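Attaching the record inline, Q. Sequence:
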Amino acid sequence: MAVDSLPLMATLEISHLSKRFGDVVALDDMTFDVRAGELFGFVGSNGAGKTTTMRVALGVLEPDAGEVRWDGHPLTLETRRQIGYMPEERGLYPRMKVRDQLVYLARLHGMSKSDASTSADRWLDRLGVTARRDDEVQKLSLGNQQRVQLAASLVHDPRILVLDEPFSGLDPVAVDVMSQVMREKAAEGIPVVFSSHQLDLVERLCDRVGIVRSGQMVAVGRVDELRAAGPRRLVVEAPTAGPGWADGLPGVRVLGSGNGRTELELADGADDQAVLRAALGAGPVRRFGDRRPTLTELFRDVVSEGTP
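Structure, as predicted:
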């Protein structure tokens, strides 16, 4: 398939990837997809398999089993040239000038010198580093290096974006700029997959999220779906209730209590009306309602399930 014939509105499929490094299982039947125009958050603990998956998608690593497909076709060298990749570790030439580097990288992806120069200038301006265009990369702050690294992933007009910890080391203004760029690229129909330990950003930005544990995708879906699928939690505000008022209720676990506020986790089938009666028996109740877990709480629950 020629590069210029690649479809814009297509899905990136990670299909049953397995990869071992000696006795270490890095990927174990890793499977998910990133749809056209979707921001997909790829989260997991260190060593869970996120970067290995990205490197397989890029062709840097060969899987032991499985494949990566774009629009239903296995990725080739030509199609991989259409991926914009931002590694977690800095992948830039430290002694090369910023603009020269972007033009060089765009040319490696097949752009003409004129188009590469125009694109480099556009992204330097968009990401707020035009004033540093003639500086060596090593002379930039870590935040500006990160901006240039993002420009390098975008300068060749990719049709897939794969970003490994793109928000690392950024100040709040730069986070907002990078978030907006990612939204804009998704709005163009580009599938965007990124990993991050900043789960508040993932929760805010993503259409869907995949949680990885021990090389496997263990939960995937929209954030609201994942939060709704977690254990039910109740918040009860009973200012005069004494300690232990909820102890012994069947299927109820106290997660925290203090200042008249108690948070409970209910097992399947637990009777919330029994909880309400117990709370009222301890005094007036000002609040009684569900609280869905945050993505951070959900992540901790999912990851801890696989911890011995």
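The mean pLDDT is 90. The CA atoms of residues 138 and 295 lie 36 Å apart.

More tomorrow.
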